[in-house]
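Summarise what follows for lecture notes:
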Amino acid sequence: MITNYLIKSVSKDSTNYKNERIRTKLGYAAGVVGIVVNFILFTIKLTVGILTGSISIMADAFNNLSDAASSIVTIVGIKLSNMPPDKEHPFGHGRLEYISALIVAFMVMLVGFQFVKSSFERILHPESVVFEWIPFILLLVSILFKIWLSRFNKSIGDKIDSSALKASALDALGDVFTTSVVVISFFIARFTVFPLDGYIGIVVALVILYSGFSLVKETMNPLIGSAPDDELVDSITEGVLSYEYVTGVHDLIIHNYGPGRCMASIHAEIPSDINIMKIHDIIDTAERELSEKLKIYLVIHMDPICMENEEIKSAKKELDKIISYNPLIKSMHDFRIVGEGEKKNLIFDIVVHSAKLNKIMSEEQLKSEITNAIKQTHPQYNCVITVDKDFR
């Protein structure tokens, strides 16, 4: 309820979360909330840690302080990522948001390393932990705060597609676990003299390290170049195919320049006998409408396909039959016959399962198998094959 109220207050009831202005405002709001909540939790836990002499509680406190700093980094990252394109960065600065999420991850890991060391020292030189009910209750309340903050960040992160906020949501969820472990160990301390606090401190620190490592892995993927979202791929493919005279699509490439900043190119197959001005107008319309609808920059390349020639029809039918028996091959496109007389080239592309290629056979073996199958019935044909790899 509080989350929905804050979102509505900031976005003025608009649900167009991909709008740059609304996205920025929601990102700022989430960052400010993160700073306030985490600083309050840091103050509470640090006070409790000092009063009780618990290293694990103080470790958890400084983990919250790093979270507050992370929220500041998130705000700065969103601000910088919204800088307009310039000469050096013609597609904008959207990837800075991924870098800010990466900084958050390294800050989390730094806190983890520090408290592995502090907790190990506590094991070597144990100190008694004083249990009190009021600090215990305050720690329980801090868990509820973190549960809410995790849900809050995830809700806004999903709406505006922010890697930094999704990372913060995951970090907050990890904090729920670590604080729960700290609370349990704090409660057990009233019944035993065993130096449990140091061991729990190491557990908390290791969980913090793992959380940081997971965040590094998640935020590095889009920076390195991760596979595009399946939903976006399907939307582009189905969108282009919905236009008149487009009979097939292939060679879709998507470049991610940050949340809401994607550039895509795709080849659209069209009949070769269509008036060039007419089909050009259709392709221009498709580029413009789909770019607006999907919030991307789309470029469509036209591939004229001739299927009226009887020789082409017969050869393609024969080739379709050959490749249908191969589990590696998903589809074929750009089929054409080039040359005259007795020697002709069949030129075409095949799309293969990338994960299966080289497990069943190599790329060269695959080409050779198709060529040999064609030559058994049509020795005059030479195959010129391009292999496209599908990573889905």
User: Anything to note?
Assistant: Residues 73 and 100 are 6 Å apart (CA to CA). The chain has a mean pLDDT of 82. The first strand starts at residue 248 and ends at 256. Strands lie at 248-256, 262-271, 296-305, 329-338, 344-353, 381-390.
